[in-house]
Design goal:
mainly alpha, 4 helices
Protein backbone atom coordinates (compact mmCIF):
# COMPACT_ATOMS: atom_id res chain seq x y z
CA UNK A 1 0.00 0.00 0.00
CA UNK A 2 2.84 2.43 0.78
CA UNK A 3 4.30 1.81 -2.66
CA UNK A 4 0.98 2.62 -4.38
CA UNK A 5 0.47 5.82 -2.40
CA UNK A 6 4.01 7.09 -2.95
CA UNK A 7 3.97 6.11 -6.63
CA UNK A 8 0.68 7.93 -7.24
CA UNK A 9 1.95 11.07 -5.56
CA UNK A 10 5.26 11.06 -7.45
CA UNK A 11 3.41 10.48 -10.75
CA UNK A 12 1.36 13.60 -10.06
CA UNK A 13 4.43 15.62 -9.12
CA UNK A 14 6.32 14.42 -12.18
CA UNK A 15 3.44 15.24 -14.52
CA UNK A 16 2.94 18.83 -13.39
CA UNK A 17 5.15 19.95 -10.47
CA UNK A 18 3.99 23.58 -10.47
CA UNK A 19 0.30 22.69 -10.26
CA UNK A 20 1.08 20.18 -7.56
CA UNK A 21 2.95 22.79 -5.51
CA UNK A 22 0.10 25.26 -5.96
CA UNK A 23 -2.65 22.94 -4.77
CA UNK A 24 -0.85 21.15 -1.94
CA UNK A 25 -1.34 22.48 1.54
CA UNK A 26 -0.96 21.20 5.04
CA UNK A 27 -2.48 17.72 5.14
CA UNK A 28 -5.78 17.17 6.94
CA UNK A 29 -5.36 13.61 8.15
CA UNK A 30 -7.72 11.50 10.20
CA UNK A 31 -5.44 8.88 11.72
CA UNK A 32 -6.96 5.78 13.30
CA UNK A 33 -5.67 5.25 16.81
CA UNK A 34 -4.06 1.89 17.48
CA UNK A 35 -5.40 0.26 20.63
CA UNK A 36 -2.99 0.53 23.53
CA UNK A 37 -0.87 3.35 22.06
CA UNK A 38 -0.75 7.05 22.80
CA UNK A 39 -3.17 8.34 20.17
CA UNK A 40 -2.06 11.94 20.72
CA UNK A 41 1.12 11.23 18.75
CA UNK A 42 -0.63 9.79 15.67
CA UNK A 43 -1.44 13.07 13.88
CA UNK A 44 2.09 14.46 14.17
CA UNK A 45 3.58 11.18 12.96
CA UNK A 46 1.16 11.09 10.01
CA UNK A 47 2.00 14.68 9.09
CA UNK A 48 5.69 13.82 9.34
CA UNK A 49 5.27 10.91 6.94
CA UNK A 50 3.36 13.07 4.46
CA UNK A 51 6.01 15.78 4.77
CA UNK A 52 8.77 13.24 4.22
CA UNK A 53 7.26 12.08 0.93
CA UNK A 54 6.29 15.61 -0.14
CA UNK A 55 9.74 17.12 0.45
CA UNK A 56 11.46 14.11 -1.10
CA UNK A 57 9.26 14.48 -4.18
CA UNK A 58 10.00 18.19 -4.41
CA UNK A 59 13.73 17.52 -4.34
CA UNK A 60 13.44 14.61 -6.77
CA UNK A 61 11.38 16.46 -9.39
CA UNK A 62 13.82 19.40 -9.53
CA UNK A 63 16.91 17.20 -10.02
CA UNK A 64 17.86 17.25 -13.72
CA UNK A 65 19.63 13.89 -13.26
CA UNK A 66 16.84 12.31 -11.22
CA UNK A 67 16.57 8.58 -10.91
CA UNK A 68 13.50 6.76 -12.26
CA UNK A 69 10.32 7.26 -10.25
CA UNK A 70 9.90 3.53 -9.59
CA UNK A 71 13.30 3.41 -7.87
CA UNK A 72 12.52 6.43 -5.71
CA UNK A 73 9.09 5.02 -4.82
CA UNK A 74 10.69 1.79 -3.60
CA UNK A 75 13.35 3.65 -1.58
CA UNK A 76 10.85 6.00 0.07
CA UNK A 77 8.44 3.16 0.86
CA UNK A 78 11.23 1.03 2.31
CA UNK A 79 12.44 3.90 4.48
CA UNK A 80 8.93 4.79 5.66
CA UNK A 81 7.99 1.17 6.34
CA UNK A 82 11.11 0.63 8.44
CA UNK A 83 10.20 3.62 10.59
CA UNK A 84 6.57 2.59 10.94
CA UNK A 85 7.47 -1.00 11.80
CA UNK A 86 9.94 0.17 14.41
CA UNK A 87 7.36 2.45 15.97
CA UNK A 88 4.66 -0.22 16.04
CA UNK A 89 7.05 -2.76 17.58
CA UNK A 90 8.00 -0.34 20.35
CA UNK A 91 5.05 -1.08 22.66
CA UNK A 92 6.67 0.29 25.79
CA UNK A 93 6.89 3.89 24.55
CA UNK A 94 10.67 3.82 24.88
CA UNK A 95 12.81 6.13 22.72
CA UNK A 96 13.71 4.50 19.42
Amino acid sequence: MLVAIIDSYLALVEKDPEVCRFVTRSPQIDVPREAGRDGAQAPILAHGLVGFVRESADHWVTDPDREPRALIVDRLAEFAAAGLCGLLENHEGEPL
